[in-house]
Amino acid sequence: RRSASGERLWPPRSMLAARGIASAAARRATTPMVVSRLRPPSRELHPLAIAGLWVAKKAVVFNLANSYGWPLIYRRMAEQSRYLVTDGATRAYVNSRLRDAIRAPSQAYDVLTDA
Fold first, then answer.
1. What tens digit of pLDDT does each residue of 88-104 get?
2. How far is CA 31 from CA 26, 65, 73, 87, 108, in A?
């Protein structure tokens, strides 16, 4: 079934008939669930709009991380590596990679501004 706006409705008439709900009043009394709202929209976004939203999201996350503090973020990630990585040598390697990943943007910025 479809609603007035063209959305597919649940349950279908065959299921209602199998349940013995054949009258129109009884069919209207059952609350249909709109199935099309569960699917993602079929509209496509312009690639520049997607790129703009991606950059905006990165800026928001970066500002939140700056306000929380990078040392605290590193500390929380190192705590999680204690739970996820059992070997001590591997954990030291993972923590050094975390530290490098946090420092890399500022080091790249320093390289670009010094040039």
1. 999 999 999 999 999 99
2. 10, 45, 47, 56, 58
